[in-house]
Specification:
Length: 489
C-alpha cells in the first residue's frame, strides 16, 4: 500500500496510473472507447464503455502493482450521465461536454434574460458546453425520465459521480466542488446547488449529488480485490492546476491537449470577468474554496493533427517543430485556427479558420510555423484577458503541461510572444498527478500543499528571447487577422 491509484477518465480514453511514494508515475494501463455522433454537433459516450474501460484499467494496474493506499479520480468535465438508482443503468448515453444540441435552448434562455443570473451565481456563460441544459434535454426527451426524476428514482452526475456510484456499488452519490462548479447549477459563492436555476430549468434537486471537498471521503470500493478508499476527486483542468502545484494566488498553468485550458489562481476572491473568461472553483480543501479565472481555446494540439492528417505535411507530430524552423523569416503567414469557431475571449462559434499573408513562395514550412505559433498567440489572448480582469499585470511564470508542451519550438514561441518564462515539469501528465496528490495527502502518503509546492521542479525553462517591439508587432498582426476572421465585433 505504498502507491496511489489515479483514475483518469478522459474524452477519448480511460487510464489508470500508479503513483509511488515520490509521486513518480509507474505501472499504467489505458483503453480508448468509441465516440458516438448521432447528429451534426451531437457527441455521446456509452456509459458502460466509460465504466468498463476505467474498471479494467484499474484492475490491470492493481494486478501488477498490488493494493493501493487510496484512489484519486479526475475526469472529463461537464459530461452528463443520468442513471436509475435501483439498477445503476443509465437512461441514455452520456452527453459529452463538446455536444451542442442545446444551443437553441441556451439562446432562448438568454433571450429571457437568464444569462446574468447564471454568470452571477455560477461564474459561467450560458452555453451548451456546461451540464445544466444537457440535463434538461434528457429529462424532456427520454420517455418517463421527468416523472422518474420527480419521484426520486434517478440520479444525475458528471463522470466522476457516475464512477463513484459504480465503484461503491450504489452506496455513495457525491461529487466534488470543481465538478459541481462546471454544471451551471452550482452557486460557487454559497457553495451549494442553486434552487432558482434548478427550478427555472425544471431540474429536481433530488437528482443532484452531495458536494464534497476535493480531498474528501468519497467512500470505498471492494471491486479491485481489496478495500480501497476514494480520497481525491477533481475535474481534469483543476486536477492539472493542482498537479502543477499552483497553490498561490497569481500562479498560472496552461494545459495543451487537443485544445488549451489556462487557469489563473485568484485565491479567496472570485473575480468576475469582463472579458468572457469563466470564474470557477480551482479546488476546495478543508472546507476552504480557492477560485480561478479560466480561459479555453478550442484548437491547440488539434492544429498539429491537421498538419499531419488533413494536409499530410508531417508524418508525425514531432516533425512539426523541425519543419517550422525551416520557414522563411521574411514571410509573415498567420493561421487563425477557428476550425470549430474561436473560444475565449472571443466566443464566436460561427467563424471558421483562415490563413493570411500567403505568397507564391509559401509552403509546408510556413504552414507549420503558422500552425504552431497560433497556439502561442491564442494563449497571449487569454493572458491579456486575465490581466484586464485582474486590473494589473500578471507577473510570474507560466507552467505548462499536456502533450503539445513537449514541442520545444512551440514552448519557446509561447515564451517569446507572452514575454513570460515558461516552465515545463518532468511529468507532463499533471492531470493524473493532481488526482493522485489529492488522495495521497489525504491518507498521509504525500506531503501537504506547502511541501508539494516546495518540491515542485521544472524539467526545462523557456525564457523569452524576442525583443518587446518585435513581440508587440507580431501580436498586432495576429489581432488584425482575428478581427478579419470574426463574424461579429
Amino acid at each position: 500500500m505504498t502507491y496511489i491509484l489515479a483514475l483518469d477518465q478522459g474524452t477519448t480514453s480511460s487510464r489508470a496510473i500508479a503513483f509511488g511514494q515520490g509521486m513518480r508515475p509507474g505501472t499504467s494501463a489505458q483503453r480508448e472507447f468509441t465516440q458516438h455522433f448521432p447528429h451534426s454537433g451531437w457527441v455521446e459516450h456509452e456509459p458502460e464503455d466509460i465504466w468498463d474501460t476505467i474498471l479494467s484499467c484499474a484492475k490491470d494496474v492493481v494486478a501488477e502493482a498490488g493494493e493501493p493506499a487510496a484512489i484519486g479520480i479526475t475526469n472529463q468535465r461537464e459530461t452528463v450521465v443520468i442513471w436509475d438508482r435501483e439498477s445503476g443503468k443509465a437512461i441514455h448515453n452520456a452527453i459529452v461536454w463538446q455536444d451542442r444540441r442545446t444551443a437553441a435552448l441556451c439562446a432562448k434562455l438568454r433571450g429571457e434574460g437568464m444569462e446574468d443570473l447564471v454568470r452571477e451565481r455560477t461564474g459561467l456563460l450560458l452555453d451548451p458546453y456546461f451540464s445544466a441544459t444537457k440535463v434538461k434535454w434528457l429529462l424532456d426527451t427520454v420517455d418517463g425520465a421527468r416523472a422518474d426524476a420527480e419521484a426520486g428514482k434517478l440520479a444525475f452526475g458528471t463522470v466522476d459521480s457516475f464512477l463513484i456510484w459504480r465503484l461503491t456499488e450504489g452506496r455513495v452519490h457525491v461529487t466534488d466542488a470543481t465538478n459541481a462548479a462546471r454544471t451551471m447549477l452550482y452557486d460557487i459563492h454559497k457553495g451549494a446547488w442553486d434552487a432558482e436555476i434548478c427550478e427555472r430549468l425544471g431540474i429536481p434537486m433530488s437528482l443532484l449529488p452531495e458536494v464534497r471537498d476535493c480531498d474528501g471521503d468519497f467512500g470505498t470500493t471492494t471491486l479491485l480485490g481489496c478495500e480501497v478508499p476514494i480520497r481525491g476527486v477533481a475535474g481534469d483542468q483543476q486536477a492539472a492546476t493542482i498537479g502543477q502545484a499552483c497553490f498561490a494566488p497569481g500562479m498560472i498553468k496552461s494545459t495543451y491537449g487537443t485544445g488549451c485550458f489556462a487557469l489563473l489562481n485568484t485565491g479567496a476572491t472570485a473575480v468576475t470577468s469582463d472579458n468572457r473568461l469563466l470564474t470557477t472553483v480551482a479546488y476546495q480543501m478543508g472546507g476552504t474554496v480557492t477560485y480561478a479565472l479560466e480561459g479555453s481555446i478550442f484548437v491547440a494540439g488539434a492544429v498539429v493533427q491537421w498538419l499531419r492528417d488533413g494536409l499530410g505535411l508531417v508524418g508525425q507530430a514531432a516533425d512539426a517543430g523541425p519543419l517550422a524552423r525551416k520557414a522563411d523569416p521574411e514571410q509573415e503567414v498567420i493561421l487563425v485556427p477557428a476550425f470549430t469557431g474561436l473560444g475565449a475571449p472571443y466566443w464566436d462559434a460561427e467563424c471558421r479558420g483562415a490563413i493570411y499573408g500567403l505568397t507564391r513562395n509559401s509552403g509546408p514550412a510556413e504552414f507549420a510555423r503558422a500552425a504552431l505559433q497560433s497556439v502561442g498567440f491564442q494563449t497571449r489572448d487569454l493572458l491579456d484577458a486575465m490581466e484586464a480582469d485582474m486590473g494589473h499585470k500578471v507577473e510570474g511564470v507560466l507552467r505548462v503541461d499536456g502533450g503539445m508542451s513537449a514541442s520545444r519550438y512551440t514552448m519557446q514561441f509561447l515564451a517569446d510572444i507572452t514575454g513570460a518564462p515558461v516552465d515545463r515539469p518532468p511529468v507532463l501528465e499533471t492531470t493524473a498527478l493532481g488526482a493522485a496528490w489529492l488522495a495521497g495527502q489525504a491518507v498521509g502518503l504525500y506531503p501537504d500543499a506547502e511541501g508539494f509546492a516546495r518540491g515542485w521542479t521544472a524539467e526545462m525553462r523557456f525564457d523569452p528571447k524576442m525583443d518587446e517591439s518585435e513581440r508587440e508587432e507580431r501580436y498586432a498582426s495576429w489581432k488584425d487577422a482575428v478581427a478579419r476572421t470574426l463574424t461579429r465585433d
